[in-house]
Amino acid sequence: LETAEKVKPFLDRALKDIRADSVHAGINLPMPFTGKDVMIGVTDWGFDYSHPMFYDTSLTNLRIHAAWDQYKQSGPAPAGYTYGTEYNTVSELLAAGSDTSNVYQYHYHGTHVAGIAGGSGAGLSYRGVAFESEFLFVTFLVDLAAVLDAFSWMKEKADAAGKRLVVNMSWGLYYMGNLDGTSLLSQAIDAYSEQGVVFVSSAGNNGDV
What is the distance of C-alpha 86 from the center of its chain? Predict the structure, then answer.
């Protein structure tokens, strides 16, 4: 038997609730894990590049390694690709401010998701799970080719930096191929997984269908 607890939005207790605090402390692990030397690639929409959550815990250094806005066609595009705009420096990211408003409005879903995954806390108690990680953001066109390009770009960036890569997909686009593991998307995820990339996906955002 277990007493049912009332659900309340106490996000400062979330890390303890999912036992991430034990991981941060290295309890029963070879070492503490805080996201250091890991890049979290977030495929989403609505990124605020200047958000305090994306700085380190001292609010000194921006932890966004690079971003690719596939909607913004003014360029420059990433090397090897023919569309979108890439930001590779802190000055470029801060000058842009945010990605283009498309699927979601400015400073919305992508910021929220990335904050949960790796927000520093901005000096508060509401920090993300992997708070010492770095970020790769892709505001992706809603089609399969763009998603595959996003994965490839993220892998290239992480490899060049010598970092492990985790790809977050907080979206459910059920029409991107068969759901039996044979689609190009599934094959790509399998192939990258064999190279050590970890994929984290929502259960799907299409409950109405």
Answer: 16
Dihedral sign for Cα atoms in the order 9, 204, 181, 162: negative
C-alpha 157/C-alpha 136 separation (Å) is: 8
179 C-beta neighbours (distance < 10 Å), count: 11
Cis previous bond, 76, omega within 30: yes
pLDDT in tens, 144-178: 999 999 999 999 999 999 999 999 999 877 778 77
Q: How many CB atoms lie within 10 A of CB 127?
A: 25
Task: Judge whether residue 128 has pLDDT over 70.
Answer: yes
Q: Where are the alpha helices (DSSP H) in the chain?
A: 14-17, 20-25, 90-96, 109-118, 144-161, 184-194
Radius of gyration of the chain (CA): 17
Determine the residue type at 43: T
Q: What CA–CA distance (Å, rounded) separates 97 from 107?
A: 9
Q: Is pTM, for the whole model, over 0.70?
A: yes
Q: Point out which residues pair with 62 in neighbouring strands.
A: 55
pLDDT digits (tens, 9 = 90+) for 98-108: 998 876 666 68
